[in-house]
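Suppose a colleague, Dr. K., hands you the sequence of a protein chain of 275 amino acids and asks what its three-dimensional shape might be. Before reaching for any lab equipment, you can write down a predicted structure in token form. Begin with the sequence itself:
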Amino acid sequence: LHSEHGFQVLARAPGRAKSLLKINLSEDAAPLLFKDVPLVVLVNKMSGSLSELIAQVIQDHARGLVIGDSTTSGKGTMQTRFYTDNTLYIEDHDKRKAIFKVTTAKFFGASGHSVQETGLLSDIQIISLTESLGRTERDRQNVLNNKETLPAVEDINAAEPFLNTQLINALKKQSRERQQKSDDFALIQSISQRVMAADSLTLAPSQAYSEIDQILIKQKIFNLSVEQVLAEIKQIYFGMNSDFVLEEALAITRDYSTRLQQKKSVGSILGSSAN
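The predicted structure, expressed as tokens, is then:
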């Protein structure tokens, strides 16, 4: 997924060892990749498909941090639409041509792995409500498995990486300490645990439900979207102007930038000493 002048996206059609699709970003597009600045990608359980692919490219090449929920959605496949001659009657006045979508390829990262089913693991996890509310590829029926791997790209470590395990662990420790000291993140974790147990909720007229349970029951009855549930929970518990996940993401970004500047300064000093 990487070359000297940009990125390449590879997709393999199931059962066809030599069937690869290449999508190249030309050298002219290289400035859009921000080659010389640190990158931080914020993801959650609902990050899927192309957004996962971009995050995987950045992570595989140690080009930047992937932070957020523990994993992304896990949609590492590509679908093709086929149009038929049949007409669907949605309503009396609404006629549409029938189409069906078929999965025709699976995406692989430079490491040779696909995010299909498992999702992309974040470098640093931030406690959030989407961790428990978000639905992933694994929650679907008859999901395609993730048993196939490809050989890693040969030049995956050709460029000097922005990150290494030691730096990621140091940033992870700083973030974890902040989250553990935060009453807001403790509340988010408590709500998330209640959300995880929502399947056991039943309607009983004589029972007094907590505010969070009322929201979750409403979600069941009216099939509310994740965004609607998040908005209601946020309004009741945190106020609409608060976004602790984003604030922590910015704090991680500042820590990352500071450490890179320190590393650059040390390198300059050592270089001057050698000369």
